[in-house]
Amino acid sequence: MISICIEQLVKSFGGKQVLNKISLSVSEGELFGLLGPSGAGKTTLIKILTGQLSYSGDAHILGKSCDRLDRSIYADIGIVTDNSGIYERLSCYDNLRLFASLHGVKKDIIPAILTRVGLDNKRVQAGKLSKGMRQRLILARALLHNPKILFLDEPTSGLDPATANDIHSLLLELKAAGTTIFLTTHNMLEAHKLCDHVALLCDGKIVEYGVPDELCRKYNDKNTITILGKDGHSVCFYNTPKYAAAIADYFSRDNVAAIHSSEPNLETVFMKLTGKELDR
Amino acid sequence: MRIQNVGALFIKQGKDCIKNAPVLLLFFIYPMVALIMTQAMKDQAGSGELFISIFATMHAVFTPIVAASSFIAEEREKNTLRVLIMSNVTLKEYLLSVGGFIILANLLTGCSFLLYGPIKSISLFILALGAGSLISIILGICIGLFLKNAAAANGIAVPIGILFAFLPMLANFNEKIAAVADLTYSGQLSRLMAGKEITQSGLIAIAANLIILSLISGLLYKRSISEE
Q1: May I ask the CATH class of domain A2-216?
Q2: Which residue, A79, A54, A81, A41, is CA-closest to B226?
Q3: Which of A54, B22, B71, B105 is most deeply packed, by most CB within 10 A?
Q4: Closest Cβ opposite residue B8 in set A74, A85, A102
């Protein structure tokens, strides 16, 4: 079943076209990554899909047109953006308690959700949380009502690797539980690690779409294998049957310290396709 | 309209306000000043009633304007209003909870004026306190919906609050100011709080103030719905 379906979507601000004939679909239970640099139109697309912006073209979420979403859709989606506000004077628990009431969820689940996102001190004032902890609280809030689709706009941007890793683990858990996840990021490693499918967005256009590994293989122009010998020297072979015997020889002589294929990573693919670098 | 949403937001507003010292102080400042002034001048006949009516008017007018605008503008500035809207809350439910909380807090703290000295009609006094709070909240909502950050909202709400709250007091010293004050809801409510009769033109002035502010808030409400 398709959770999100977009066809020929166009969005302009003033005279500037921010999204240009975007088409993609996200299946139920899929972790989809929308990759692109700042200003590519990622956040705009999330706003369109969650009914916050008008557009032309077709966009459907859970079978409903995004330009005619009613309030009931908010029971099925959770949103985490970098500017999602929290009540800074309230405790983490009280922040979640408010939203549990609004979603009609029992407050008993709040401690479990806080533990799940790694926020054990539920009485701490939200305003005193670090950026990583704040992001966890926003994620906990988005998960309170067990949404069918979770929108995450740069969820690990600016976080330390350990916190980012915790969030990655949680996202994989959610995916395993059947939640559809729409993730925007400019972190290609994150996308490669987590996503079932990715779309590379640049200047409002999708320049490539597919499974991360397949994309990397598709743009593996060099198609070489580099062998680092135990004696310290390295040698590069074309990845063709012609060099199979030579490569096998290295193994038979027990002289292989490491072996690398020349597949590019998603960042290299992106640069190759757009001539642009992603933000760091 | 979901009462459950209004209730949850009302409780949130209360918890948040208790930790928001500047706004919390607003609800107590005029009753405290009135207490000090009435005690300091209690030997002078009639001063108690005068101070109570002056400070009760300020309490009914200034406090709700600044509190409402501050609450709403802060929610917009920190993007929490948008989060609420995306959590199945309507702007109407939100404004009702904010307004309800401010009226209740203002009435509860405003009732302390009743302890400071003789008040000719307690029911009229509470009616004036409630009506003043309601109209002031609408004015505060206009400011909060018009501006998107708390600092800017306070920058506008404080002078407007001072203008409406102090006009009745200044009217005691100048006839021209008194004529202007008679056109405002605060001027008329101040008369009620002092136990004076309110004329038909006074009632019309209050109604006109209420209608004008309701229309403005309605327009800003529509604009805010599309923005949020």
Answers
A1: alpha beta
A2: A54
A3: B71
A4: A102
